[in-house]
Amino acid sequence: MEGICNRLAPRCVLLDVQEQDLKQIIRTMVTALTAEVPVSDPDRLVREVMAREQLSSTCIGNGCAIPHAHSDTVHTSLIVAARLATAVTLDTPDGLPVSLVFLLVGPARRAMAHLKLLSKLARILHDEESRKSLRAATSADEFLGAICKGEMNG
Predict the structure, then answer these.
(1) Which domains does the chain show, CATH number per domain?
(2) In this structure, are strands 59-61 and 13-17 parallel, antiparallel, or unpaired?
(3) What does pTM read for this prediction?
(4) Would the pLDDT of 102 be above 50?
């Protein structure tokens, strides 16, 4: 199975995103995704991610969130990363505001691959050194390099 680094294009790494509303953050991330790969219905994808978020928060603590959804608007599992310029208060297990958001979307027929990617992302984001590297990155390439390093070490 292809890993995170093969599903996260440099143009899908967004640094210093200004939005402070989760739906707007997701919309910005979906817009970046549609510039990189075909998405059959970007508005529907945003609705599907937000519907999943209504079931339970996808915040995992330590200032990180992994909103995700199964959607047939994409043909394979894809990832978009956003580092927020200012952390946003969301429903988090530890009460810490969120500054790192990873959007994971993929078709339902690829549910096992989707879950494996979700698990890998969570492991990387639970590592303090990985989070520090992601927050300190000065470019999309540096951010992507930190994710790839975390994936290799995890």
Answers:
(1) 4-153 (3.40.930.10)
(2) unpaired
(3) 0.95
(4) yes
